[in-house]
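Input.
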Amino acid sequence: MAEPFSISQQLAERVAALAPERIPAEVRICCEALLLELCGLCVAARNTDYVRSLIGSVDGGGPCSAIGHAGGFSAEDAAMINGPAAHGED
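Output.
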């Protein structure tokens, strides 16, 4: 018997299956505003002690971005840096 998909897997599949032209304009506008806010929070937090500590705790190198920082990171390291950066100053 196959394991049931997690909620995050189900959400990811549904989002990936969306046709952009079927997303209402109001939803796209809201998502764009939220993404801009998230990026602004990450940039604002980029020089804080907690973000610098996170950057210093990883090896670096990888295909993913830590918003506001040069260089690439692994997916898990980028998520570990971006999450606190996005919410720490909020």
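The longest helix spans residues 25-45.
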